[in-house]
From TrEMBL:
Pfam families xrefs: SSF (PF00474)
Protein known as: Sodium-dependent multivitamin transporter
Phylogenetic classification of the source organism: Eukaryota, Metazoa, Spiralia, Lophotrochozoa, Platyhelminthes
Any Gene Ontology biological process: sodium ion transport
Keyword Membrane: yes
InterPro entries per record: Na/Glc_symporter_sf, Na/solute_symporter, Sodium:Solute_Symporter_SSF
GO terms for cellular component: plasma membrane
Residues passing through the membrane, by range: 12-34, 46-69, 90-109, 121-140, 147-170, 201-220, 241-266, 286-311, 350-370, 376-401, 408-431, 472-496
Entry-linked NCBIfam families: sss (TIGR00813)
Length: 581
């Protein structure tokens, strides 16, 4: 097995495992526990995130992904070197490594809480077992093992979650009493159409802010782009993205329905206000523990769901981290020092070692989360949320804005990263549960023994306004606006790309089509010639060849020997071949 097969499955993977892997990669236990508690506390308005899916997934499928796929990249960050130079590639790679390391550790820590509550075993048992299993099969089996195990885990996850939801519904008497209690508790409310960006969730924040968040994951994250690159053709990659719209939407609805079912069961005796659990992220495992006390089979199904979500996230993340570290950090540095590429044998060995190193590192970080206060955990979540936006920003600047040059690109990346950190860290330190207004929660039906431990009300009498109360769903868009604006200004003061026009293959075809109609007084920002990359060692080395039509997808191009070849959607770049448009 060589490195390309380890990380990309020799670019021959089919639709079914890729669809499952794309969906499962970010269906973490963090999301499963958090979405159910979201419906419990705030109702079903979160379902509007489906509107964000309808925007983000097609944009990822038709704008971002084709650019990466046709370049036949091993790492998405190679594109950044081709477009903006080595510094941008290295900075983005380091940001991604930070992002995924923290996220994987959180994905290990969240199911450990559920495991400990349901089984009574220590948290470290869950962290160690999950991290060890995922690291081993990821490091040894590569992307093929990851995507096929993702498919198996997704079946367990969806099937098990549906079983748990149905059983909880039956336990509380069926749909009729559930629906009555949900309506009484105002969990099915009308949508909030306020334009106030400082409200946590409104119609606009969930659709437009949510689309930015989803696009940063499915359009600009190496973990997902690596799966697109592993597809056997462009059409398969596009279908894999688009099929996730109905799949993720239906699963989101199931998660929210489970939260409503838990509210119906606990209505009148809220577990957090009554002191039975510490926070609402524990409410799903607590409900399983209470409703199915002594029913080992159901508890086992629930744990299988949580662990399936955790394993998928860990395996996908570790594989991507190893890929990025090898292709974007180690290999370029080795070539710079030795003036020769690493042999395939040693690349494979280094990839294996990196898989184990990142697996061990994330397990260790998960232990730190388990020992730390909740405040540090909140900061870690905030740091993760701040990083997706800057990476989306720099890819957007490269793919859609031909006038942004190398100086503008590095400015866009750094400024958006600073913006994201400022917003998220400020929100973390100014956070107070008093600033969040939950829907009605009551302890009126609790027994006297439980009421002795009841806490004071968690409902806010009135939310205190703060600049840092900007909806977290807008963070990606805020980073995007700041980064693109400053990147454009810096590029304007440094002459745009007039002296070094951009290779058209590094742009989305939509951007090329729009740019063609700009006023002729604006200097040309794209090359009139097509480009072929000589080798994989120096991706910014190029030879020019004439395009037959530089603006429309699927047109013929001239190769070195002068012969024309049709370039359909599935065409890709290979060594010594001109890049199809």
């Amino acid at each position: 097995m060589d490195v390309e097969e380890l990380f990309l499955g020799d670019r021959k993977l089919t639709l079914l495992p890729i669809v499952a892997s794309v969906m499962a990669s970010f269906l973490s236990a963090v999301g499963i526990l958090g979405t159910a508690s979201e419906a419990y506390k705030f109702g079903v308005q979160f379902i509007l995130l489906v509107g964000g899916y309808l925007i983000a997934f097609p944009v990822a499928a038709y704008v971002y992904m084709p650019v990466f796929y046709k370049l036949r990249l091993n790492s998405a960050h190679e594109y950044l070197q081709m477009r903006f130079g080595k510094p941008v590639r290295w900075i983005a790679s380091l940001i991604f490594i930070l992002q995924m390391t923290v996220y994987i550790a959180l994905a290990l820590y969240a199911p450990a809480l559920a495991f400990s509550q349901v089984s009574g075993l220590p948290i470290w048992v869950s962290i160690l077992s999950t991290g060890t299993v995922a690291t081993f099969y990821t490091a040894i089996g590569g992307i093929r093992a990851v995507v096929w195990v993702d498919l198996f885990q997704l079946i367990i996850l969806i099937g098990g979650f549906c079983i748990i939801t149905v059983l909880i519904t039956l336990k509380i008497g069926g749909l009729k009493p559930l629906w009555d209690k949900v309506l009484e508790g105002q969990r099915v409310q009308s949508f909030d159409f306020s334009f106030d960006p400082f409200k946590r969730h409104t119609f606009w924040t969930l659709i437009f802010g949510g689309s930015g968040l989803v696009l940063s994951i499915f359009g600009a994250n190496q973990t997902q782009i690596q799966r697109y690159m592993a597809c056997r053709d462009l059409k398969t990659a596009r279908r894999a993205i688009l099929l996730n719209i109905p799949l993720t939407s239906v699963f989101l609805a199931f998660q929210l329905f489970t939260g409503l079912a838990m509210y119906a069961y606990f209505s009148g005796c809220d577990p957090v206000k009554s002191g039975l659990i510490k926070n609402y992220d524990q409410i799903l495992p607590y409900a399983v523990m209470v409703l199915f006390d002594g029913v080992v089979l159901v508890r086992g199904v629930f744990l299988s769901v949580i662990f399936a979500a955790a394993l998928s996230t860990v395996s996908s993340g570790v594989n991507s981290l190893a890929n990025v570290t090898l292709e974007d950090i180690i290999r370029p540095l080795y070539i710079h020092w030795k003036s020769v590429d690493i042999s395939e044998k040693w690349k494979y060995r280094v990839a294996l070692y990196l898989g184990f190193i990142f697996g061990i590192s994330t397990v260790g970080l998960a232990f730190i989360f388990a020992l730390s206060s909740s405040h540090i955990l909140q900061i870690s979540f905030a740091l993760f949320g701040a990083i997706g936006g800057p990476i989306l920003t720099v890819f957007t600047a490269g793919i859609l804005f031909p006038c942004i040059n190398a100086k503008g690109g590095i400015c866009a990346l750094i400024s958006s990263f600073v913006c994201g950190l400022w917003l998220s860290i400020g929100a973390t330190f100014s956070y107070s549960s008093d600033n969040i207004s939950y829907l009605p929660l009551s302890v009126s039906n609790c027994s006297s023994n439980i009421l002795q431990n009841a806490s004071s009300s968690v409902n806010a009498a009135g939310a205190k306004w703060s600049f840092y109360s900007l909806s977290y769903l807008y963070y990606s868009l805020a980073c995007l606006i700041v980064g693109i604006s400053l990147g454009f200004l810096v590029s304007a003061f440094s002459g745009f790309n007039s002296r070094s026009p951009v290779n058209p293959r590094l742009l989305a075809w939509q951007a090329r089509a729009v740019y063609r109609h700009l006023p002729s007084c604006f200097p040309s920002q794209t090359a009139s010639d097509e480009v072929t990359y000589k080798n994989r060692i120096s991706p910014d080395t190029c030879i020019h060849h004439q395009l037959s039509n530089p603006y429309e997808d699927g047109m013929s191009v001239k190769t070195v020997d002068g012969k024309k070849h049709s370039s359909g959607e599935g065409d890709v770049i290979s060594v010594g071949q001109s890049i199809p448009n």
